[in-house]
Amino acid sequence: MKQILRRHILVIFILAWVFPQTGKLFAQDDDAEADSVQSTVPTKVTVNNIFVIGNEKTRKSIILREINVQTGIQYDWDLLIELIEADQKKIYNLQLFNSVEITPLFTEPEQIELLVSVTERWYIIPNIIFNLADRNFAEWWTNQDKDLSRVNFGARLIHNNVGGRNEKLRIGAQFGFIRAFELQYSKPYIDRKQRHGLAFQLTYFTQKNLQVKSENNKQVFYTNEAEEVLRQNFSTFLRYTYRGSYYNFHFATIGYNRTKINEDVFTQNPNYLLGLGNQIGYTILGYTYRHDDRDNVQYATEGEVLNASIFKYGLLPNDAINDWEISLTAAKYFKLSNRFHFATGLSATSFIQQAQPYTLVRGIGYNPYFVRGYELNVIEGQQAIVQKNSLRYKILDLSFNIGKIMPLEEFSYFPLRLFLSTNFDHGFVNDRNKIPSNARLTNTHLFGYGMGLDLVTFYDMVFRFEYSVNNQNEGTFFFNFRAPF
């Protein structure tokens, strides 16, 4: 309540500052003059000031970093409206706010102030870990026979806005099927011009039940009789970020990974680590270019995104492996009308060497290389390409103010959007080793099609309900927790 009161007082202060001659704003005698000013849309306007309200925790500089409109510059009115709409999307895609609204306020016929009003989300989230260890819900439900031992549980502390500077902190401990510890911290800007950033990540996990290979394009898991730990993995990364413009990012990553495998694993797959022993360690160096201009990063209906990266595995003479990986993901979203939009995306990856340790396995069935209709399969190889398409119709677009039953303002906004989608995906995996047990789906064109319902709700959470059929004439219902691309 205090936050709302302070916000209202600030709005009144701004309006009083913008319109010092309050009699001119409110006097009955000047209603006709005010109406004539409002009915005449100016061709050009000058922005004098930008005010931000509602940012109780987030620093103003973080919000202003996303605003392209500048003060003291004269804009064509139509161009200004386009810039305001784009700036609203950029601020919202920080994922710090439930709502963002930028309003132009006229002081003179060609003089305006901009009022940026935001409603903040809840940033500190004690997170209970309770999820499936498998690739997707369908894999667990069908191939793993709804085995509850394949559940991960634990606790995680997430802070999405440390110090109000959009810094991310994540600390977690996980038990169950995969035991893990994680520490992540990212600082998007370390300089005054807000262009350079750093991120750090450390993870450690162990597994007693391990995927050791695939047969008939299905994952094969193994546990030894003593139920010992079969895999221990430690990795750490340092990532540098450069943001030269609003939509373009550059990432440089250096890291180290060490994997130790129980000897019993090699009885199931002698080539699990390519004969390099039971322990491999290697350094990693990578570069990624990212262009992201979407209206909503969680579930886009307009815009485009592109990720292109190259990674070198093994930099030092003692590193166990020496390989390169090149990958690309891209998606384009077309808004056809207020109800319809079309989404299309492409994902591709390629290793240079003939074979890789099984810990670096790639292919269709592993994120982000999914062909709908093949969620129950893994199609592994050194090169993979997937192209996805969805035509979506918006059935519902509602929002509810539940402030009367929810005392916390950060949770008082409840959106609900529902889309009907028709889908067609296809892809190809090149297995240079031509493993006979997986030959049914490798080195051949794969496709799947179907329909689904996409539910987008609180804090942009996505729930997908789809029925898909693949070109093996296998049809299955699938349930997923994220947008397909």
From TrEMBL:
Residues 45-121 form the POTRA domain. GO terms for cellular component: outer membrane. InterPro entries: BamA/TamA_POTRA, D15-like, POTRA. Pfam families: POTRA. Signal peptide: none annotated. Keywords: Membrane. Its main location: membrane. This is POTRA domain-containing protein. It comes from Mariniradius saccharolyticus AK6.
